[in-house]
Write a structure and sequence with these properties.
heterodimer; A: 369 residues; alpha/beta; Rossmann fold; Rna Polymerase Sigma Factor, Chain: A; 2 domains; 8-stranded mixed beta sheet; 12 strands; 35% helix; globular; B: 195 residues; 26% strand
Amino acid sequence: MATALASQLNTLDLASPLPLDSGKVLPNVRLAYETYGEMAADRGNVILIFHALTGDQFVAATHPITGKPGWWERMVGPGLPIDTSRYHVICANIIGGCMGSTGPADLAEDGAPYAMRFPVITIRDMVRAQVAMLDQLGIDRLHAVVGGSMGGMLALSFAANWPGRADRVLAIATTARHSAQNIAFHEVGRQAIMADPDWRGGDYYGGGGKGPEKGLSVARMAAHITYLSEAGLTEKFGRRLQDRDAKSFGFDADFQVESYLRHQGIAFTNRFDANSYLYITRAMDYFDLAEEAGGRLADAFAGASATRFCVISFDTDWLYPTAESRNIVHALNAVAAPVSFVELSAPFGHDSFLLDVPALDRVVKGFVG
Amino acid sequence: MSLRPDLAKIASLVPPGVRVLDVGCGDGELMDVLTREKHADARGLEIDPEEVERAVARGLSVIQGDANRDLADYPDGAFDVAILSQTLQTAQRPDWLLDQLLRIGRTAFVSFPNFAFWKMRMALLLGGRMPVTPHLPVSWYATANIHHLTVEDFRDLLAEKGVKVEGSWFFAGGREIGQFNANWRAEHAVFRLSR
């Protein structure tokens, strides 16, 4: 973490070492977080937002590296569905991440970067760190936890493992477990990173090396395809050529879609650490809420029967399709939790939760209240 | 906001503070009244995503799904009251749906349009075509009502299944009418049932 950036981040050091699902313990844990809106005197208006795989705490504030608007500025702000003139919104970078929270790029106790010595963490470990943060901030009860994609997994894990701590749980475009297909796509990304000679077994920090930018870029390109729908790609790019009238009979980015993906890949390497990508995708692949509860998903939610849930899926999302959301809803029904579910129609695939879907805004606003 | 007469009747009959499942709840109009006036713990099931969106937007717990399939996922006796209003005639298997209602709820309310209402009979008798009325306004080829029934048909089904009728109420022209000759005079019927 560059010092110039570090000075712009709000951070909190956990008072105690963090026990992990692996049995290991992570010492000196730091969480970087942003807040939006004022906290009420009784601390009763707090909403915790969990970000997605490549997201961060800059939900509704300009990103300090890219200078781009926050990733959910259309949803979070004064007068918006998650209304920061009424609610105090907190979003923390997950542990394992690379925007200020403790991750593989940070220094271990021996003064050298963790790199691959960083312990393998789980979704529940990420949540456990944020629960410890809430404890230190003196926030006992949340009005809501909210998350899309991986953020939805954290929200479900929060509800299952710390029941009663949040009054409402909003899980969008997510799943209660990673499927074989989900794991497969992640493995492609990880192998691309680890096949890059500049990865050096993860020891690429310092020394002026640029790290496995090629590998990380390919990982991002492969993943990005899974976030879009086939129809969306066709509408946006079709077979149109990029800045040329004819095919080049070479391997330049002839097609617009190639150029777009290459751009997405390269831009990503400017703001994301390759080892973080390995650790976070691993945590997602390990995620299986039912397994944590002995095999039956309903048992995971046994303590959460008084929590209000809202589960939203999108009809064009093939990464976490509607069937995965229904699976969650059935489990919640089985414990008689008050649950709402709707599959919304939107053309953008998995990324719909981040984009202009007016029906999503209405449902979120109605549910959050 | 005034509820449709059959819904108003159901709302008046639901005891306070109970757990209610409204199957085919639409935008949650009845659930809203039950929650506010009867302090019911109301849940809904609705197939139309736009209706679900409106129901969730008003703060209700509604699941988008198909009653013909998804009711099987609800545990036995999960609710005190299960409601099926104006939906029976759209079901793939109304008899299966009725069994599910009485499995999930201790009491069930079922309302449906009576196809033996005298104006229907006249329209079919004199017009010779499937009736299109203000209450059943869609032509035969486009209607969601795939299992038209009469009050007497429904009573026969209940008798066959050994379902107990705890009460029945009838409506025509937007108001409640008496029990007399209901199969001729009633446009709509509401039944309270139990096993």
